[in-house]
Amino acid sequence: MRGAAVIVDVLGDPEAGGVRPTPEDLKQQIREGLPFSVLETVTSRFALDPNQIASALDLSPPTPAQRKTKRRLRPADSDRLFRLVRILAETADVLGSEEKASRWLQAPNRALGGQTPLSLLDTDPGAQQVEEVLGRIEHGVFS
Question: Of 33, 49, 43, whose CA–CA distance to 88 is shortest?
Fold first, then answer.
């Protein structure tokens, strides 16, 4: 799973604690809450707007600042961040680069009723819709 590899890569960053976890360790780390720096790194790495990321993680406007102060995300936030990163990684795989993935996720998509893929990632059903469209793209079925 490339999403796990991306999270492992981000968690291996010295600014995120420098300890490179195994993918199996992720379950426990998500349950404990990922470091806030992971959110910042993912936002920067995929050139995404922090407000859009907060919305995709279903965080109210003041919440990211509160999590930054505590330097840790809550377990539910961490789980949603993992889902987001998994889809970011899948999108980059299908489209060929993180830059293309970022652009695609932020652009309105006809197959998603004119909504941006990123705006649907706040729920699992929305994430599944995005994954279905990516699957069609990957297999050359355009809608």
Answer: 43
What end-to-end distance do the CA atoms of the chain give, in Å?
Answer: 26
Neighbours of 100 (CB within 10 A): 13
Q: Which residues contact 99 (CB under 8 A, 6 or more apart)?
A: 47
Return the sign of the alpha-carbon dihedral for residues 50, 125, 32, 90: negative
Contact indicator for 64, 72 with CB cutoff of 8 Å: no
Phi and psi for 106 in degrees, rounded to 5? Answer: -100, -5
In a domain, 26, yes or no: yes
Q: How far apart are CA 115 and CA 95, in angstroms?
A: 19
Q: How many domains does the chain have?
A: 1
- Under DSSP, the state recorded for 96 is S
The reply to whether 143 falls in a domain is no
pLDDT tens for each residue of 9-21: 765 554 555 566 7
Return d(Cα 69, Cα 64) in angstroms, integer: 9
Tell whether pTM > 0.70: yes
User: Is residue 39 included in any domain, yes or no?
Assistant: yes
CB–CB of 30/75 below 8 Å? yes
With respect to residue 21, please indicate whether it lies within any of the assigned structural domains.
yes
